[in-house]
Structures are given as C-alpha cells and as structure tokens.
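Annex B. Sample input.
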Amino acid sequence: MRKLLQREFAGAITLALFLAYLAFAAPSFYSLGNLRDVALANVPVLLISIGMTLVIVVAEIDISVGSLFAICGVCCGLLARDGLPIWLLPVAGIAIGSALGAVNGGLVSFIKAPSIVVTLATMVAWREALNWATGGAWVENLPSNFQWFGLEQAPGEVILFLTTAVLFVAILWASHNVPAFRSIYATGSDAEAARLAGINTKLVVFAAFVLIGALTGFASVLNDVRFSDVPANAGIGLELQSIAAVVVGGTPITGGRGRLMGTLIGVALLGIIGPALTYLQLSPYWEKAIQGGIILITVLFDAFASRAERRPALA
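Annex B, continued. Sample output.
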C-alpha cells in the first residue's frame, strides 16, 4: 500500500505543478468554457480507464478498447437511425460492449490465450471489419433527439457529468467494500493462491473483460450524443491513452495493486496536456512527447522508491 501511495503521489505532484505553471503562464486556460470542453473530452477516457484499471489489476491487458469503442458507437448510431428509442441507447451500448468484452474474456480466461495477443488480434479484426462494413463512412441522418439525448446542450452536459461521476463513485465504493472486487486484487496478486483460497480466477478474469467492454460501450454512447453524426474512425489511440492514465495513476502493469483515485489523477494529467499546449502557443505535436515524458518520470519515481525500500537499513 505504501508503494502504491508513492506512485499516486508522483502523479498528483506532477499534476499540481503543471496546473500551477498554467495558472502563471496561461491563466486563460482556466476559463469555464475550456475547463468544460476538457472535461467533456475526457469523460470517455475516464470510463474506459476505470475498466482498464481492473483489467491491469487482474494482471491482464486490453488493447482492443479503441476498436470496441468505434463499433459500439456506429452500432448505436445505426440503431438510433432505425428507430430505437433514445433512452435505450446506453443499454444497447453496454450490451454490445459487454458481448465484445466477453469474446476477449472467454479467449483469455478459458482458452488461456495471452491477453496481449488476443486483444491485439481483436483490435485489428474489429477495426478492419468496421471499415469494411461502413466503407469508412460516418453514420448520418440521425434523429433530431439523438444529440444530447434530445435535450439542450447545457442539461445534456450535466447529465453526462453526473452519470460519469455517479458511476465512478459507485465503482470506487465497490472496490473497497464488495468482496467480488477483492477477488480481482487477489487474482492479480497471486492467481494460484487465489484459486486455492476458493476464488474462481477464470471467472474473475472473464468478468474484468466484460466490465471493461460494458464501460467502453457506455462511454461510446456518451461521446456520440455530443455530435450530430457518428464517425466510423472513432477511438483511435484510446487504448494507449487509457493504459497510460492507469500507469501514471500508480497501478503497476504487473497487476495485483491499483486505486481508481490514482487513475482519475492520471486521466486529468494526460488529458490537459493537449489543450494546455494550445494556450501556451506550442505545437500540438509535442503532446505525445510530453505524455511519454510524464509516464517515464512516474515510472522512474517508483523505481527509485522501490530501490530505497529494498536497501537494507543501517544498524
């Protein structure tokens, strides 16, 4: 736990320093409109990163979430255009995402295929299948009540923020109080010990992939209703963005440990870099380089902290 808190501390300090620098160098960054836009853009990233945290805690990885995000969005757009009631779109997104997540989970849990290989294969297969089916065309001619669920933009944004906040708090609470979530940490720490303790580790891993699929499907719906059309190329880079946010937030890629509050810090830190560059009048091409530097600094901080813990105390 102490090591995990050290990881979170590194991300939190970096975020605080960056925000302080922006307050001095680009105070207009803190305009209400910009903060709202940054938050809206990172709502899907946060939802997917919640699921990614649990998958990494269970000592697996999922790099197919970007393709899954695109498929769920296109499918929900087509369903809305064909007459599905708007209030059922989130249900449809969750169902489609869960089904695709179950494919990954089944192959990893019961076939024992490596998750990196499985999700790499499905990432490519799903993206190419979507391109073939749509020809790269966006889903257009959506019903008038598709955007913002038929509401005005202001109340629509409030619904997106509140829904995300409630979901985050609910999963955060469950991760500390629901025994099923403790099984995730036990499986990630030592799968064999967890199995001997009576935990169905295969089912735990399967459930983690289903959950990230459900969260990705839900995130795609919340993202799509912000616009009047649904792009077929959505979600590119989401897998790396969510994994990076989880790692920066303090969750070790080896699994067994992780905290959702740390993931929230990671999403916030990586999510403000792009907009901040605009206000600092710097090239947006620096965004990935800065994100990589932050990830490296976080990992190095943890490495030094781990070395200090292993150093024998002087008599």
